[in-house]
Amino acid sequence: MMSNEFQQINGILQADNLSSVFQPIVDLRSRDFFGVEALTRGPADSELFSPAVLFPMAERVGLIRELELKALEIAGRSFRNLALPVRIFVNISPMSLMAPGALEFARTLLSNAHIDAQNVVLELSEQYQTDDVAELAAALEQFKAEGFGIAVDDLGSGYAGLKTWSQLKPDFVKIDRHFISGIDSDPIKREFVRSILAMAHEIKSRVIAEGVETAEEAQIIRELGVRYVQGYLFGRPATVPSIDQNIHHLAARPVLRERALANRKTIGSLAQDFPSIDVNTRLADVVSIFKAHSAISSLPVLHHNTPVGLISRQHILEIFSDRFGPELHARKPVVQFMNEHPLVVEYTAALEDVSYLLTENGEQDLVQDFIIANHGQYHGIGKTSALLRAITDQQISSARHANPLTQLPGNVPINEQVNTLISQQTDFWVAYCDINGFKAFNDVYGYAMGDKAIMLLANILSDHVNSDHDFVGHIGGDDFILLLRSDNAPEVCAEICNNFKQQARTLYDAVARGHKGIWSQDRQGKRAFFPLMTLAIGLVHPDVDSTLRADDISTLASEAKKEAKLLPEGGVFDSPARFPGCWRAVS
User: Fold this and answer.
1) pLDDT tens-place string over residues 357-400
2) Which of 107, 428, 476, 486 is 20 to 30 A from residue 120's alpha carbon, by CA?
3) Which domains does the chain have, with CATH numbers?
4) 491: Cβ–Cβ under 8 A, 6 or more apart, which residues?
């Protein structure tokens, strides 16, 4: 006899009693749709309306695959009616993808819905585990060959994790909402996102942050370099999706000072190579080490080179100062006396984040020492006093060399960053940005509006780069420098030019916009007509194997900018032809 739950699910399937809603996935650079995620809803006015109830019930009665396929069919029809020129992300379990006939079903669905496979991204649901990742990877290769995109959903939760991500090499990875919620006040979550972005860059996956609900969360993940976002802040699931006005409020926020820190040090630079001890080291031997090294205030306790504790000089001396301390404890292992919960930070952590971890609990005394690890293995000891000095020096240096208007780093940190990239033999591009028509605009509208134009460009530049890999500097006036490590630097610069051209129009009055320009005096004092402001970018791709220095690259970038200024409507000059031996051909 069929159970009541089986009959409920089967009845829904037979009657096509499902519907689809869509939630926007937003591109923070374009402030527009990047895609939509299709979400299934059950019968209205029923407990099965919620997917959190519907899908678990279908799994219990053995109809999960049938429900998934029916949901895909309904989502395809609904998406076709939207006529949105974007990707659709659809959830599906590995078992459905690996089932016989899955690819043929997908082809039929696309044909009926008149959807191109290249506009469909299959999101692998983390709710259902597969024991054979190799078989899943083989199935996905067939779908990829057909044109489908692949996404791993909810990274950081569920069964898949980083191992499955590395094996499947998806086109997209969606960070679980747990790591986005409260990221503005949680340095550990920020480090997690930074790590995911670095790995995604290596395997060519694009990162989407899920569950963004506050402007503070959005601002931080934008500063970290996340380009694609999804969450209630930008749009709720709806039959006809729309992007909330919050996206424009975010775009209007000023450049954060944190973005302006050039050559920002990581905590690894402060690591001191203290001796380490094993968990089984006798306490008498620990005392001997402290006596032999008077400058050492604590020792890391390791188990197979993994930090498990910290023992302080003061604690040991207190134990041995007791009348019978040496006799009672000298032969005991240090593991019985160590601090089992020391602060352990990865060597790539930013100084500011470690400082936050040290000071977030105001009820406890500030620790003197903490452990620095390299991928979980002991790397060295960090001193809180050294950290505070380094942060102070960094803030003073940043303030000294930052542009007072944009707070972006100026000439000194720009040159330092270029020299660092050259010395590390890092492949990079230099983009020299200059506003066409800025002087005329500043003369007609005044310096306050001129400052607005400069801040507009500063924000656009900061929005279009990956803050974990790229660098934005402000030489002065309307001149900016980008140091780009992205493979698609020419395309990024073209986007920046187009974006500035569109947004700069809003700074003019209606008459100027109607005439597509303004009248002002040229540099010779003659009255002349100046088109609306555009952006010129000279792009240099230096050969880091050569003997070039920062001054040489500055000269090349200036020459490229002069060529870009000759372009009629602004744009990017990236031809290497005039600089043989110093440039690389643009692929």
Assistant:
1) 776 544 456 788 999 998 888 999 999 989 988 888 876 666 66
2) 486
3) 16-253 (3.20.20.450), 267-390 (3.10.580.10), 403-573 (3.30.70.270)
4) none
